[in-house]
Amino acid sequence: MDLHILDHRLRVTSISKNGLVHFTHPLIKLIFLRNRTRCKFFSLTETPENYTAVLDEEGFKELQPSEHLKVEGSIWLPLNVVSNGNASSSSQAVGVTKIAKSVIAPLAQQHVSVFMLSTYQTDFILVRESDLSVVISTLEEEFSIFKEVGGESIPVHSQDVSNGLQKNGREAIQPTVHPVLIPQNQFCVMSLDPATLPSIATTLIDVLFYSNSPKEEDGSPSSQGIKFFSFSLIDGYISLVMDTEAQTRFPADLLFTSSSGELWRMVRIGGQPLGFDECGIVAQISQPLAESDISAYYISTFSFDHALVPEEDIASVVDMLQDQRKEPATS
Amino acid sequence: MDLHILDHRLRVTSISKNGLVHFTHPLIKLIFLRNRTRCKFFSLTETPENYTAVLDEEGFKELQPSEHLKVEGSIWLPLNVVSNGNASSSSQAVGVTKIAKSVIAPLAQQHVSVFMLSTYQTDFILVRESDLSVVISTLEEEFSIFKEVGGESIPVHSQDVSNGLQKNGREAIQPTVHPVLIPQNQFCVMSLDPATLPSIATTLIDVLFYSNSPKEEDGSPSSQGIKFFSFSLIDGYISLVMDTEAQTRFPADLLFTSSSGELWRMVRIGGQPLGFDECGIVAQISQPLAESDISAYYISTFSFDHALVPEEDIASVVDMLQDQRKEPATS
C-alpha cells in the first residue's frame, strides 16, 4: 500500500453560527467561483455548534480575521492511502475502517493527533506538519510513502526528514472514553459532477447559509435529528454529506451515491468539545469497527468527531460502544 | 391614462464598494431566496461609485446598519402609468419618453423630486411619501389615479389626501444644467423567467459580488466603458441592465430582450453627486427626448442619473445635449 502526503498545507478553523453572515462572501467564492481562487482544498461542515472550515493557505487568505473566526494554530497535512493493486486485505469495508489498523492505530500509539475527513471519494488523514517525521517513521514499515510536490510523487523515508525520532516513548495510557450521541436522522454521502454545481447553487446556498433563519412556511426543526451538513471541494472533486431531509431539497438526478439508497447513521463522539491534542479518539471507534468489518466514514470538526456507519449496523455499533463504556469500570 | 400608486414603501440606500462583502448575505437572500423573505420590491445597481439598493421595508429590514450603508431619509412611493387602452399618444417611443410630458414635466414644475427606475417591464416613478398630496393634485387632471392597497386599486382624489395644496408657488428658477458623460459601452435591457433564475445564479453572483476582484486570467477592465449593472426583482418580475461585455457571460438562451439585438447607449447625468432634493433633472433630459420621440430608459442611483437611449440615436442626443449646454451661456 502507498501513503501519499498531499501537496496541501491546511488550516482548521471554525466560524460561529452568528458570524456566518460575515463570511458568506469568501465562502461562496470558495465554493462556486473556482476561477477566482487558487484554493484547491476546501471543506465546510455545519454542526449544531458552529461551522468548521478546513482549507489550504490560498483559501485561508480569503477569511478575514474576526471575533467569529477561530483558527487552530497548526499547519495540517493531508495523508491519503492509495491501494496500489496488490492490497492483501480481504475486507469489503470502506472508509476509515480500511485504514484503522494500518494507519489510525499506529499513529494513536505514537501519540499523534489526527483530524479525519472522509469524503465520497476518499479518506483524508490530517496530521500536524510538526508531527510529520514521527508519522513517516511510524508508517514506513507498512507503507511506501510519497510526498506530492507540484504534481509529482517523491518517495520519502524517515532519514529524509529532520527529526526521525519517535515523538515520545511514553507508555500507552488508558484513553478517555468519550460519551457518544446517536441522532435519529439518516445520512447519505454523495457526489456531484463539478460541471453541474451551478445547477444546485441556489439550493446549496440556501441550505448552507440560510438554514438557521426560519422559512415563512416552515419553521419547525426536524425532531430528534442533528444539524449536520458537509460540503467539500478538494482537487476538483465534490463531496456532500447530508441527512435525508436535506437531500429532498436537491434534484434527485444530479447528486449520486455509491450504491442506491445507501443510508448511514451517525455516532457523534464527545460530550465536551474534544480539542485537537488528544490522541486515539479515532482509533477508539475505528478499531472495533475494523474487527467487525463495519464500514465507516469519519468526519472530525472543530468541536466533535462524527462517525457514520451503515444503517443496518447501527444496533451492533451501539452494543459495541456500550461494552466499551462498561469495560473501564470493570477492569 | 391611469396612474397607480403602488403598494410598496421604499427606501433608497447605497452600499460602499468596500462594504459589499458585509451585505452579501442579505442581498443574496433578497435576489435568490424568495421564499425566505417578504420583500416584493428589490433593485440593486452597481455604478463606479457604489451600489444603490432600492427596496421595500421588508427588504430594508434585512440590511444591518453599518458604516458602509447610507440611507436616504425618506419613504418613497413608486408610481406607475398604465395605459388603459384609449391612449391618444401616437408616439412609438418607450420608457421615460412616454411619460415625459404627462408626469415628469408637471412634477418638476411643482418642485417634486423624482427618483426614476426604468425596468424591462415598466418605468417606476418614485416620489417621496411626503409629496404625495402635491403629486395627486398635480397629476389628477391628466390621470385617473388609483392607490393599490392589498391587491385592490382604490381611486384617489386630491381632496382625499391630507394636504391638497400645491407644494409651493415659487417661480420656475433656471435649473442647473449638469455635465454629462457618454461612456463607450453598449447596454441591453433584458428579462428572465424567474423560474430560470437559479440557472444563472453563479454567473449573476460572480458579476454582482466579485467583479471587483480581478480574475486570475483576466484582470483588465474594458477600456473607456463604465461599470454599470442593474438587477431588479419587483412583484415577481426580473429586469437586468448590463453592457454587452457582461452579457457574454450569461447563457444566450435564458435572457431575453424586447427586440433582438436592441442596444442602448448611456448618458450619465451629473459631475458631482446629485443628491435627492434637486427637481427637474429627469425633466431636463426627458423633455427634449420626447420632442424628438426618442425612447429612453432612465435609472436614478444614489449618486448619479443614467439615461439609456437607442444606439442609433446617440449622435442626435449628444447634439441636443450640447445645444442645451450652450443656451444658458447665450441667454
Short description:
The first copy, chain A, contains eight helices and 18 strands. Chain A has helices at 20-32, 57-60, 100-109, 132-139, 201-209, 244-247, 281-291, 314-330, and strands at residues 2-5, 10-16, 41-46, 50-56, 69-71, 76-82, 114-118, 123-128, 144-149, 152-155, 180-181, 186-192, 229-234, 237-243, 256-257, 264-269, 297-300, 305-310. In chain A, a hairpin with a 3-residue loop joins β3 and β4 (50-56).
What's the structural blueprint in terms of helices and strands?
Two copies of one chain form a homodimer.
Chain A: E1 2-5, E2 10-16, H1 20-32, E3 41-46, E4 50-56, H2 57-60, E5 69-71, E6 76-82, H3 100-109, E7 114-118, E8 123-128, H4 132-139, E9 144-149, E10 152-155, E11 180-181, E12 186-192, H5 201-209, E13 229-234, E14 237-243, H6 244-247, E15 256-257, E16 264-269, H7 281-291, E17 297-300, E18 305-310, H8 314-330
Parallel strand pairs in A: 1-9
Antiparallel strand pairs in A: 1-6, 2-4, 2-5, 3-4, 3-13, 6-8, 7-8, 9-10, 11-16, 12-14, 12-15, 12-16, 13-14, 16-18, 17-18
